[in-house]
Amino acid sequence: MAVTLGQVARHAGVSLATASRALNGSARTVGDGLAARVRASADELGYLPNAPAQALARASTATIGVLLHDIADPYFGALAKGATDTAADAGLLTMVLNTGGDPEVELRCIRMLHAQRVRAIVLAGSGYTDPGATAAIDAALSLYRAEGGAVTAVSDHGDGYDTVLPDNRGGAAALTRALLDLGYRRPAVIAGPERFRVSAERLAGVADALAEVGLTMDQIRVEEAEFSRAGGRGAVGRLLDGAAGGRDRDQGRPDVVLALSDVCAVGVLAELRKRGIDVPGGIAVAGFDDIPLAADLAPALTTVRMPLLQMGAEAVGLALGRQDDGPSGPVRTLRLPVEPMLRASTGTP
User: Fold this and answer.
1) Within this chain, do residues 291 and 265 fall inside the same structural domain, yes or no?
2) Which residues of the chain carry a pLDDT beneath 50?
3) Which residues, by range, are in coiled-coil regions (predicted)?
4) What pTM was estimated for this model as a whole?
5) How far apart are CA 312 and CA 83, in angstroms?
6) How many domains does the chain have?
7) How far apart are CA 80 and CA 71, in angstroms?
8) Which domain holds residue 10?
9) What is the pLDDT of residues 256-275, one digit of tens each?
10) Do residues 140 and 212 both lie within one domain?
11) The CATH number of the domain where 84 resides is what?
């Protein structure tokens, strides 16, 4: 069995990144003593350098990769624009890859970008809750970073990554408080898929605000749906038809539906219109993200404003900074505030 770079690193008592730089000819220098130790371990173990790895360490292309869940979703479209504009200002091209929110597809994309020697990878979609999927992705990214690549994330992808972190939990709590202050007392929530970390963060924020007025999540109706227009339509249909995940029919019709994604909320509005239910007179509706069309809907959508263009831009900025600092620099987290935007869909002029 071939000796791996990781085995050489362990034998020499150095990090994988240091071993890679010592053997693969990276522009980032390693001290003579460390380099000699790594080379001695490689000789003793019979390590054969990987030619593509050496090429990546010596130089990368003038390209970055951006991975997102759904390019057709305006949320991801805005993130991609912020990222591509910033990359272009730095003289870089951007490869935007659509994963469909599937961790297996994401893993293949990471490996492809690694093989293409891109300068940086930006994870613009939510992280996954499945530990197995997360471990596989982390392992692929560790190999990429050990050979000179930079990785940044938008939202939580676990420890060890430079991250642009919008306040998903705080934003959901603030919006829920605002709805309670407007007098709504029978909220229903359309949550995102359990496989995404951002879904749990936003749902936790709703729970935080409800707890402040003595309510629990068991006392409201919650439907899980994909972050899509069809997901929103189907979820509100189940809520109205009394099929809300097995909850009791006698909880009554909600007075406000909080969809934890604007695209979901667009589907909610469409389904309520189809059923002849006035918004907000019959049922109020709120979303999350403040995608560009949210204020132009009829009625205009109450939501949480996320700085989407800035999020994409800052992620690329962190990646380029990591290229300058090297892999041993401290992990950086850029926290961005969000704010509720109250509009006509919840009865706010």
Assistant:
1) yes
2) 27, 55-56, 58, 243-250
3) none
4) 0.79
5) 4
6) 3
7) 8
8) 5-57
9) 999 999 999 999 999 999 99
10) no
11) 3.40.50.2300
